[in-house]
Amino acid sequence: MKDNAYQPPKVWQWQPGNGGKFANINRPISGATHEKQLPEGEHPLQLYSLATPNGVKVTILLEELLEKGIKEAEYDAFLIDIMEGEQFSSGFVEINPNSKIPALLDRSTSPPTPVFESGAILLYLAEKFNCFLPTEPHLKAKCLSWLFWQMGSGPALGGGFGHFYAYAPEPLEYPINRFTMEVKRQLDLLDKHLAENDYICGDEYTIADIAIWPWYGVLVRGDLYNAAEFLAVDEYRNLSAWAERIFVRPAVKRGRMVNRSWGDESEQVHERHSAKDFVNKG
């Protein structure tokens, strides 16, 4: 062990401000930090989110449902600024006690149904509207397997590789190497799978694609963590082709724009959004 290496104490103590870029919104306890009710719109579906990869999953699915003419999928979207701690308001915690975006409230049910975790929201909406989820048992099992693969594998990309490569206070060789190896294994897995499939479940575009694309598709397109060259994403040709097939879908383009709080003038913030209004503004 190096002389200046970090040595964990016998009992860890929280030091506010430690932890890099997101230190000010991380804490070792759950629950609300302040009283504030969430805004509400006119549609049955109320989405409280941000255009992170996990947030984009849900808005892409909602826009895909609307693309199919399913008017019941009209929604209002409200931006939750996680850097300002809005996910810790009493209203948000009431819907999602885990204080992470996205969170959905379905007011078409009695009582209203709160849903949190992006994978759970995708599955809830796909079953509610009977779309983007295969009905044949073999294909449904395949779709759900890949959906939950993303939910389980994604943290190695986001909280692992992305954090240590792009956000940590200083670059550290061991965690960057550790998570780069795992991310490249995941990219290789997807690339090999897509060598014989147009989409994750074969010929059918499903919530598995919608869950995986905002992380891995965006990564190989060079739009996540500025890490395309570092990860040599050009090696994954099948994955890159799949990423482009999904990128050109109109609903994907719209879904990426909702609740976006950064970017150029073509990526404006929509703090309150109904899909119909957004399409008209298109």
TrEMBL record:
GO molecular function per UniProt: transferase activity
Stretches assigned to the GST C-terminal domain: 136-278
SUPFAM superfamilies, per database record: GST C-terminal domain-like, Thioredoxin-like
Keywords of this entry: Transferase
UniProt cross-references to InterPro entries, sorted A to Z: Glutathione-S-Trfase_C-like (IPR010987), Glutathione-S-Trfase_C_sf (IPR036282), Glutathione_S-Trfase (IPR040079), Glutathione_S-Trfase_N (IPR004045), Thioredoxin-like_sf (IPR036249)
CDD domains on file: GST_C_YghU_like, GST_N_Ure2p_like
Domain GST N-terminal: 46-133
Lineage top rank: taxon: Bacteria
UniProt-recorded name of the protein: S-transferase
